């Protein structure tokens, strides 16, 4: 299986294969129109599309319990099938952690070119996803599979959160520090891996790492606003948070942590189309000052299974900026 290069079967890689953020904004805006409502809804919707597009939907069960539900899947981001499964599962579970919740149960979502790739490889992908979900204390049972020319894998996840202790996109308040819980750079390193086959063990480990501990620490610290940093890059997700809350997020470029080889990857030109689209989309909403182009690309790098961006200080994780009252630009990058 080590000789098989799964990334060569995909047009994009990981979260870089998402629909471009500007197009997605238009699509979600059309869906969010209040021209249709549930008939006699069984539960109250606490978080949906109105908050600016949170990481998951939340419906209330009672005063102390709410259900978190999400789904996430993508094309191969690494060649090793077991690692791809681990990363995809961690990424799907992250949506629940980004809401401050705990994942309870998941089902697999598998798209497989069965005439091109052995089913034994698919089994390794599923095994990787199961192992990460089980490490999170999350049950995995069944799922749905279809055949198609390009492989994709992920999970639909259901979790639980206290309605008064959620992390929301629209709750960032001026005066709060900004915390980032994982280093950036997985996008450019995944692009390099796809082009050359070079394996970056640190990137794999970071992408497969659960956001569980960071989420729990944030909730314990009284943080009430956050999101996970994935396909739209740090800048894209910061802009969405600032837009939803009506604030400005100021990012200290020198304080942002990066994976060891990330800068070398940009210098070598290993930048995905998704990252460049991210930067084109967010640039009109960002005051970059004198920050150079390579730094802008890294800040817009399309992450896969990235960390949490939190409006509050969380012990053990780096502070990379602060929340300000709304200014001329929703996001400011200080060099």
TrEMBL record:
Location of the PurM-like C-terminal domain: 174-260
EC number: 2.7.9.3
Pfam families given in the database record: AIRS, AIRS_C
Family indicated by similarity: Belongs to the selenophosphate synthase 1 family. Class I subfamily.
PROSITE patterns named among the record's database cross-references: PROKAR_LIPOPROTEIN
Residues binding Mg(2+): 55, 95, 228
Cofactor: how bound: Binds 1 Mg(2+) ion per monomer.
Subunit structure: Homodimer.
Highest taxon listed in the record's lineage: Bacteria
The protein, known as: Selenide, water dikinase
Cofactor: Mg(2+)
Reactions this protein catalyses: hydrogenselenide + ATP + H2O = selenophosphate + AMP + phosphate + 2 H(+)
Active site per the UniProt annotation: 15
Domain PurM-like N-terminal: residue ranges: 53-161
CDD domains: SelD
InterPro entries found in the cross-reference section: PurM-like_C_dom, PurM-like_C_sf, PurM-like_N, PurM-like_N_sf, SelD_I, SPS/SelD
Record key words, sorted: ATP-binding, Kinase, Magnesium, Metal-binding, Nucleotide-binding, Selenium, Transferase
Function noted in UniProt: Synthesizes selenophosphate from selenide and ATP.
Any one Gene Ontology molecular-function term assigned to this protein's record: selenide, water dikinase activity
